[in-house]
């Protein structure tokens, strides 16, 4: 299960304005990757997660924020969770720092609360499920939206306890 990291930085600085995702309304999940960003969304009752889209990041180009804004306009989420890539020991490295920077840009540009969630093993779980169901991960479309869905569904289930 993912551990909710909140939007508080581990460097000891003050927490951002938003530290909680509301308990009602849709939640948008962002599974950040170096080349692709998976997007998933919950239903308004925060029970079921659904894949939405995979955004492609081009080398040397900025994050496709305009595309994310159109997704946010379409689904009107109450908050956003962002997968935080922790290392095997659960510590944050350079990748997590870059994800937090991107999450803060998203929070600033959208005004929505952003919460960071441990994303370790989400992609591995999707690949394992694909193998179990005899779906080739190499011939299928990118799975980043499915990883975001796994991340969001685990968050929803943990929160419902």
Would you give an account of this structure?
- The chain is α/β, with parallel strands linked by helices and 161 residues long.
- It has one domain (4-9, 22-160): 2-Layer Sandwich (Nucleotidyltransferase, domain 5), CATH 3.30.420.
- 35% of the residues lie in helices and 21% in strands.
- It contains four helices and six strands, in the order ββββαβαβαα.
- A six-stranded mixed sheet has the order 1-6-5-2-3-4, with helices on both faces.
- A hairpin with a 6-residue loop joins strand 3 and strand 4.
- The protein is globular and about 40 Å long.
- The model is unreliable at 1-19 (pLDDT under 50).
Which second-level CATH architecture applies? Answer: 2-Layer Sandwich
Name the structural class. Answer: alpha/beta
Care to count the β-strands? 6
Biggest sheet strand order reads: 1-6-5-2-3-4
Secondary structure: helix percent: 25-40%
State the major sheet: 6 strands, mixed
Say which CATH homologous superfamily is assigned.
YqgF/RNase H-like domain
Our measurement of the CA-to-CA distance between the termini, rounded to an integer number of angstroms, reads: 12 Å
Write down the overall mean pLDDT. 80
Order of helical and strand elements:
EEEEHEHEHH
Describe the structure concisely for a colleague:
The chain has 161 residues and is of the alpha/beta class.
